[in-house]
């Protein structure tokens, strides 16, 4: 969406009262631009999903795209794998996101078996699956709910299945973390965000997006049942992990 009307300008003017960030209609309208200019490495992560699926996904297996937003991860898989390779369930809690994702996926990949549902991923009735994608989703759940969800996903995965977990992360070393945050703000400035936008967005996300360290993520995955996980991608304070269920 390159049209100017879809440019992310939500925090471009001073707001008397900053509301908590939410995935409402206003965010949906500019979400592709927001992600492109706010998440370093997002395109590279999407581009690898089909390659990871091609290596690890059993032919015809079920895939979950949890916290699917506008369906970018689902689209990435459909663009790289034939319709018979998998069937997919995309889930999001935001009605606005779900409506747009349904429209987009039905138009862009009509031959693929893709279902988009509105629901809470913490209470979903999971069916056996070969791959789960959590692309910048876990960070928006209350920290106390994260391990329980991962344990449920581990139980739903077939032997040999994989979970791809992409998150904003923090560094346990204060000085290193400050450097990454400063360079991330440089990244946003280079992509056209003003100091006001950076500041107001950061305030709106406080206590909404709660990041973990990579060490905490790997430890949680192990407690959830995954015998092996690794960080396969990192760009500043954004990273993607893969966790494996033994065959």
UniProtKB/TrEMBL annotation:
The residue stretches assigned to a coiled coil in this entry are: none
InterPro entries referenced in this protein's UniProt entry, alphabetically: CmoA, Methyltransf_25, SAM-dependent_MTases_sf
Which EC numbers does the record give? Answer: 2.1.3.-
- Enumerate the CDD domains for this protein: AdoMet_MTases
| Gene Ontology biological process | tRNA wobble uridine modification
Residues engaged in binding S-adenosyl-L-methionine = 42, 67-69, 120-121, 135, 202
Q: Which UniProt keywords apply?
A: S-adenosyl-L-methionine, Transferase
Limits of the Methyltransferase domain = 63-161
Give the reaction(s) catalysed: prephenate + S-adenosyl-L-methionine = carboxy-S-adenosyl-L-methionine + 3-phenylpyruvate + H2O
Q: What job does this protein perform?
A: Catalyzes the conversion of S-adenosyl-L-methionine (SAM) to carboxy-S-adenosyl-L-methionine (Cx-SAM).
NCBIfam families from the UniProt entry: carboxy-S-adenosyl-L-methionine synthase CmoA (TIGR00740)
What's this protein's family per the entry?
A: Belongs to the class I-like SAM-binding methyltransferase superfamily. Cx-SAM synthase family.
The protein's name in its UniProt record: Carboxy-S-adenosyl-L-methionine synthase
Instruction: Tell me what organism the protein belongs to.
Output: Billgrantia kenyensis
Name the encoding gene, please: cmoA
């Amino acid at each position: 969406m390159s049209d100017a009307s879809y440019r992310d300008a939500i925090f471009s003017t001073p707001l008397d009262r900053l509301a908590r960030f939410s995935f409402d209609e206003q965010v949906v309208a500019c979400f592709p631009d927001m992600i492109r200019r706010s998440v370093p490495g997002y395109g590279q992560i999407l581009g690898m999903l089909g390659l990871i699926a091609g290596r690890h996904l059993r032919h015809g297996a079920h895939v979950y795209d949890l916290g699917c937003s506008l369906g970018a991860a689902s689209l990435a898989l459909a663009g790289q794998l034939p319709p018979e390779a998998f069937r997919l369930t995309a889930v999001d809690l935001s009605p606005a996101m779900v409506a747009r994702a349904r429209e987009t996926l039905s138009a862009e990949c009509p031959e693929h078996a893709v279902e988009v549902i509105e629901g809470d991923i913490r209470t979903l009735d999971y069916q056996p699956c070969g791959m789960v994608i959590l692309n910048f989703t876990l960070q928006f759940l209350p920290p106390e709910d994260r391990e329980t969800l991962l344990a449920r996903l581990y139980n739903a995965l077939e032997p040999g299945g994989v979970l791809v977990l992409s998150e904003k992360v923090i560094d346990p070393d204060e000085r290193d973390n400050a450097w990454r945050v400063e360079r991330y703000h440089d990244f946003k400035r280079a992509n056209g965000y003003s100091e006001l936008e950076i500041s107001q967005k950061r305030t709106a996300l406080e206590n909404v997006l709660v990041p973990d360290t990579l060490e905490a993520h790997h430890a949680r995955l192990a407690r959830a049942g995954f015998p092996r996980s690794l960080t396969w991608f990192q760009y500043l304070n954004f990273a993607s992990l893969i966790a494996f269920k033994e065959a």
